[in-house]
Amino acid sequence: MKFLYHHRTLGRGGEGVHIASLVRALDALGHTTMVVSPPGVDPLKMAGDSPVDKDKSQVRGINRIWKIVSCWVPDFFFEMLEIGYNMYVVFRLGPILQRRSQDVYYERYAFFMFMGVYLAKYFGWTVLLEVNEVVGVQRARNQLLVPISKWFEKMVFKKADVILTVSSFLKEEVLKRRGKTGSVHVIPNAVDSQVLETKETGEHIRKRYKFDGHIVVGFAGWFDTWDRLDLLIDVVKDVHQEYPNVRLMLVGNGPVATLLSEQVRNAQLEEVVVLTGPVPRSQVLSYIAAMDICVLPDSNVFGSPIVLFEFMGMGKAVIAPDLLPIRDIIEDRKDGLIVQRGDPSSLRQALSLLLCDPALRIELGKCARRKVYGKHTWHENGKRVERFASLSMDLS
């Protein structure tokens, strides 16, 4: 099959990894994929080079303009630009869609973006829509024109032949907004095969930070408010009294990084907690390999954290919050531990359990790796997309 993949992202961070990994998976299955991005954006080149720090990634030319727009334009004007982007879609995608040189139109849903799906259906394409977020639910940027965005969203959801969400939470939301009809399926994020094949041990990271002889608890990613890394620091401070050999390594950067540094300094935990700063994605696996226990203290209610699959694929014991997207992946006490959101005692209990039981850490890590290897690789996701596209084309 020939896919036309359209998105409106900057191709950095998790979104870039998702796009690049799925496109490569489809190509590996023998399909061809034409990717249409905003001007100057190429996730196939940018995703692997982006550091785990979107603010400090080095960009030039038109990408610098997109970064300035994303970071500094007031919310109202930003949303007006999102609406205006539909005009670019008409001129960029219109001629391609009219030629019908591909078989399937695949779009990564974005707020206010409707023209791609509308034109694809007008010209008779099979449309697959990937949904990673919905209007009115947590977003890093404030949402102002919610009624207008919801109107566009409902129209797009109704026109798509197949909708693929990254979590059960989003599937339920799509069905509420679209109506209880149509083809809506969950395909969580995944991990690249290189994670499963890596021989990385993380020894050089452990030596760099003097972790030899210590149990390393870790997190890697973009430090956002909803991750509750402050809670993790507080819990590690408590358990350190009972387990003085515990260390915490936070890999990455983000909006709350300065607050976390102040928290560590005020609690006099400089010898216990390490904040590495931004790390290129190509090096993230080395840092995860250096961890003994990986923790997601909290997350947003809708997303499928890519780093969770990397933790599991590296065979690490994982602690994660009780959210639908997490339960889509982890079975409590089988391939990870699930804790109550925002509850320090629940997190403390789970962490203490793993700190005192190395055999349990190993067993959970093995089961996690086995599950990811069997169900949650990008290759498997590519096959799922292939199957849904084929079925939809047969029905059209």
What report would you give on this structure?
By secondary structure, the chain is α/β, with parallel strands linked by helices. The protein has two domains: 2-190 and 378-394, Glycogen Phosphorylase B (Rossmann fold, 3-Layer(aba) Sandwich); 193-376, Rossmann fold (3-Layer(aba) Sandwich), CATH 3.40.50.2000. Helix content is 48%, strand content 15%. It is built from 17 helices and twelve strands. It has helices at 13-28, 43-46, 62-72, 75-99, 115-122, 146-159, 168-178, 193-197, 203-208, 229-240, 257-266, 281-289, 306-313, 324-327, 344-356, 358-375, 378-395, and strands spanning 2-6, 32-36, 104-108, 126-131, 162-165, 183-186, 215-222, 246-253, 273-277, 293-295, 317-321, 337-339. The strands form two sheets. A six-stranded parallel sheet has the order 2-1-3-4-5-6, sandwiched between helices. A six-stranded parallel sheet has the order 9-8-7-10-11-12, with helices on both faces. Strand 11, helix 14 and strand 12 form a beta-alpha-beta unit. Helix 1 (13-28) crosses helix 17 and helix 10 (229-240) packs across helix 15. The longest helix is centred in the first third of the chain and has 25 residues, at 75-99. It is globular and about 65 Å long. It starts with a strand and ends with a helix. Mean pLDDT is 91; it is low at 49-57.
